[in-house]
Amino acid sequence: NRPPRLHRDFVMTRPCSLQNAPLRIMQWNILAQALGEGKDSFVRCPMEALNWSERKYLILEEILTYRPDVLCLQEVDHYFDTFQPVLASLGYQSSFCPKPCSPCLDVHNNNGPDGCALFFNRRRFQLLHTTHLRLSAMMLKTNQVAIVATLRCRLTGRVFCVAVTHLKARSGWEAFRSAQGAHLLQQLRDITARSYPEMDQENRTRVGDGEEGIPLVVCGDFNAEPSEEVYRRFMTSPLGLDSAYKCLSEDGTTEPPYTSWKIRPSGESCSTLDYIWYSERAFQVDAVLRIPSEEQIGPDRLPSYNYPSDHLSLVCDLSFSQQPHRLM
Ligand code: NDP
Ligand code: CA
């Protein structure tokens, strides 16, 4: 008697190339179990829809429906007892970075801190390096984190970096988010420009004006609409990043109308907060998973019996541009 899962199609954004299998990237704030039950007060979501014993299967089902090569999650508070072991048995290697002072810890019967988690298909990629970052804002340490991993494709030898983050929530914190974004971008510049001994010239790409480095994908819940400064910072950074979900719009330059939609006692919140950024000179977007319609989401919004988080998953297929951009 449950409504069916939300059905979502992939939109092909360019003719499919058969030669190089694209990288499928998934970005998702899965809603921490402790926050969903103890802090969020989603007024139109029945408490029973938040039972972990069932909700975990909806989250896993969503992931396994799309089978991403790289999976970036936020608000993970069941890493050690659920996602790490289950996804390891399905071929994923992973890393977890808890928030230093997770709000989950305030909730009675919590399951530990929430944090960011990064999973990748270990048959396809070899892990070269992982960094856990605690984000700063104006030189001060904050409660937000990021994971940056450098991966090498076992088949093609191509190397790229992937990062996952979850910036500070709530209105009034726009400048703080922007500062966190600036810190993350600086760290990413350092990491992607670093020369790994394993790396040959083929793998370095001229990423922006006068900059070179390895290709980069950054996934996150930025807690920021596209009108915010942190979005502009990412859009115009020397790393040469673009946002994959703009490909869904008619003109190719507009973000989707929402990636999160919920009703709290304070009111309804329908906003675009989540992004998949990619080095635009290194990757092309082949396909993007459509955002469900308002009708599909339903009048009670998210989460619900048929969708386990207040944030939608974002999934895209990226392929390396045919030739790496030569350095000279
Ligand atoms: P954030 O403000 O970034 O938010 C934490 C979580 O709350 C996010 O996952 C966010 O979800 C969710 N959230 C956003 N808006 C609301 C809302 N209106 N109602 C309920 N939940 C919401 O938190 P911080 O990491 O900065 O931590 C702040 C909390 O942590 C404090 O409330 C306190 O309980 C605790 N804490 C933090 C300390 C610190 O050092 N920062 C020290 C001591 C305690 P989403 O991203 O999906 O919007
Ligand atoms: Ca949340």
Main sheet: strand order: 1-16-17-2-3-5-4
Do you know the CATH architecture?
Answer: 4-Layer Sandwich
Radius of gyration: 19 Å
Mean pLDDT: 94
Distance between the termini: 62 Å
Main beta-sheet annotation: 7 strands, mixed
Name of the level-1 CATH class: Alpha Beta
* Percent of sequence in beta strands: 25-35%
Structural class: alpha+beta
Give me the count of strands: 17
Number of helices: 6
Count of folded domains: 1
Ligands in the structure?
NADPH dihydro-nicotinamide-adenine-dinucleotide phosphate, calcium ion
Assigned CATH superfamily: Endonuclease/exonuclease/phosphatase
Write down the CATH topology.
Answer: Deoxyribonuclease I, Chain A
Name its key features.
328 residues; alpha+beta; Deoxyribonuclease I, Chain A; seven-stranded mixed beta sheet; six-stranded mixed beta sheet; 19% helix; binds NADPH dihydro-nicotinamide-adenine-dinucleotide phosphate; binds calcium ion
SSE arrangement:
Elements: E1 10-12, E2 23-29, H1 33-38, H2 52-66, E3 70-76, H3 79-89, E4 92-98, E5 115-121, E6 125-137, E7 140-153, E8 159-166, H4 174-193, E9 205-208, E10 211-213, E11 216-221, H5 229-235, E12 241-243, E13 260-264, E14 267-271, E15 274-279, E16 283-289, H6 294-297, E17 314-320
Parallel strand pairs: 2-3, 8-11
Antiparallel strand pairs: 1-16, 2-17, 3-5, 4-5, 6-7, 7-8, 9-10, 11-15, 12-15, 13-14, 16-17
Helix pairs in contact: 4-5
The protein binds NADPH dihydro-nicotinamide-adenine-dinucleotide phosphate (NDP) and calcium ion.
